[in-house]
Amino acid sequence: MKRCLDVAYPNAHCELNFSTPLELLVAVILSAQCTDERVNEVTPVLFSRYPTAADYAGADRVELEELIRPTGFFRNKATSLMGLGAALVDRHGGEVPGTLDELVKLPGVGRKTANVVLGEAFDVPGITVDTHFGRLVRRWGWTGSDDPVKVEQEIGSLFPRKEWTMLSHRVIFHGRRVCHSRKPACGACPLARDCPSFGAGPTEFDVAAKLVKGAERDHLLELVARS
Asked: 6 in a domain, yes or no?
């Protein structure tokens, strides 16, 4: 199944737009209960207005909340971003730290967020257990756990550490494009022959093909048609 994911999504990547570790950290915090597309609509103005950790620490709450309002839960997220800025200034000279232990001590940062930042900004392999990742690896029988830390540990034991970051991207890509929560496109899935949950969604190719999303759609359908 992992080899099929490699072929299906060779260019999988973080779909949040960023240019610095701080921008990535902020974007991941904003992505909680929000789509990456919506976050990417908000962050250009946000990043321009708050280019440094000190800017978030000293932000006007009303202004910050208004800028991030479209991402939802904007009051809690504003609190996290202002606390994050202050913590980075106080503890790390305004810079984003590059270790898991230091990242998870920051306001609004859990293991999922930390692993995204480590993998993308510091090239440190990590497994990102977001909603899609956890849902798919349970559906595939790779783990039976609902606890994100246990999922991270159990999946990490199955694959070489160097592959963790790209594995995370590819599983998440598959969850967004094919293996949907309520109606997976089973009949148009390149992993179908090895999936223990085949049949959870429509198995007819023509029906399932209509459910496949994303820029990779034609590539994915061609893989299935060839097989």
From this structure: no
Final residue in a domain of this structure, among 66, 91, 122: 122
Instruction: Give the CATH number for residue 56.
Output: 1.10.340.30
Per-residue pLDDT at 227 exceeds 90 = no
Cα separation, 111 vs 104, in Å, equals: 6
Whether residue 189 sits in one domain with residue 158: yes
* pLDDT, position 120: 95
Out of 87, 122, 157, a domain closes at 122
**Which residues are annotated as catalytic?**
112, 130
- Which amino acids are annotated as binding site for [4Fe-4S] cluster, given as ranges? 179, 186, 189, 195
Contacts of 222 (CB under 8 A, 6+ apart): none
Q: What DSSP assignment string belongs to 58-124? A: T--HHHHHHHHGGGS-HHHHHHHHHHHHHHHHHHHTTSPP-SHHHHTTSTT--HHHHHHHHHHHS--
**Residue 73 structural domain:** 21-122
Binding-site residues, in ranges, read: 179, 186, 189, 195
pTM for the structure as a whole: 0.91
